[in-house]
Design goal:
The chain is built from 13 helices and eight strands. With 304 residues, the chain is an alpha/beta fold. It has an eight-stranded mixed beta sheet, with helices on both faces. Strand 5, helix 5 and strand 6 form a beta-alpha-beta unit. Helix 4 packs across helix 5, helix 5 crosses helix 10 and helix 6 crosses helix 9. The longest helix has 24 residues.
């Protein structure tokens, strides 16, 4: 019996240690509030599943393009491209997906339907004229392809930048994933620099990412997406896109280590695209080579 008591005591100490580490490392200590949003740029709108942070600029009468960010970095990832497109006369809309940035982080199932519903409602509120152009970066490529396959009549031209192709299967329980993310929170922010071929040129990138990590629900959004956005759906949507005969621009950094360049070949086997392979750029070629990428985007959108 003494051995059992000792083992139970050791187990209790281990559990207390794990919990203590979680409390110490856990960055999610706040519920997002009006005060957090009051000095932010952009606008806010209440949709069915919560408040969405968005920005719209450019003439109301101009052709609209909607920019959709990737897995975890909010809409600021589009900064340069957003400004470039507005300058060239487009109506440009970007937004934070639920769970990211200054949008709400509901305790929901982050499925294709959930993301699609947010975009549909935002477009209705903003009274976006159709057909409009749409662009998706990284995981945003999955959201774009899913949206287009459900609403092809709303879309004119499509742009993909280093789009996700094979989302990882994840059988680990959410509680375990949540704990691991919690104790490695700021390492995850630093890992965002691996998106670049030349991270030294973006010294403030990790610090821009960290503020959203303090809001409760951020980790759940990422984990739920991994668990509830089927990889088969992503590939099937890319395949189905070809049947709509849309004009598609595919931009890919040749030195991408997140979604490697060879996936561009896999995508082109399913979908007819105009490919821009960007030399000396990683996962975010629009940031590392903005002149080349933005010129190509504008040329593509302006051409009949």
């Amino acid at each position: 019996k003494k051995i059992i008591y000792v083992l139970l005591l050791l187990l209790a100490l281990v559990l207390i240690g794990f919990y203590g580490l979680y409390v110490l490392k856990n960055a999610e200590t706040k519920t997002i509030s009006e005060n957090d949003r009051k000095n932010a740029g952009g606008s806010f709108v209440k949709l069915t599943d919560g408040i969405t942070h968005y920005e719209a600029a450019g003439p109301d009468t101009a052709k609209t393009i909607v920019l959709i960010h990737g897995f975890s970095v909010p809409y600021y990832i589009w900064d340069g491209t957003f400004d470039s497109l507005v300058h060239r006369g487009f109506r440009v809309i970007r937004y934070d997906e639920f769970g990211r940035g200054l949008s709400d982080k509901p305790n929901a199932i982050y499925s294709p339907l959930f993301y699609r519903k947010q975009l549909v409602e935002l477009l209705e509120v903003l009274k976006v004229k159709t057909p409009f152009h749409i662009a998706g970066l990284s995981f945003g490529g999955a959201i774009v392809s899913d949206f287009v396959t459900h609403y092809p009549q709303l879309i004119d031209k499509i742009i993909f930048i280093d789009p996700v192709y094979r989302f990882p299967n994840q059988g680990t329980p959410e509680a375990v994933m949540n704990y691991t993310m919690a104790i490695k929170a700021y390492a995850m922010a630093d890992d965002q620099l691996t998106n670049f071929k030349h991270p030294e040129l973006f010294p403030n990138w990790a610090s821009k990412y960290k503020p959203q990590m303090k809001f409760k629900g951020f980790r759940h959004a990422l984990i739920s997406t991994i668990k509830n956005y089927p990889r088969q759906t992503i590939i099937a949507n890319y395949t189905q896109l070809d049947s709509f005969h849309k004009k598609v621009l595919l931009i890919w950094g040749k030195d991408d280590k997140i979604v490697t360049f060879d996936y561009s070949d896999s995508l082109r086997q399913k979908l007819n695209v105009d490919l821009l392979a960007v030399e000396d750029a990683g996962h975010l070629p629009h940031l590392e080579k903005p002149t080349i990428v933005n010129q190509k985007i504008i040329s593509f959108l302006k051409t009949q």
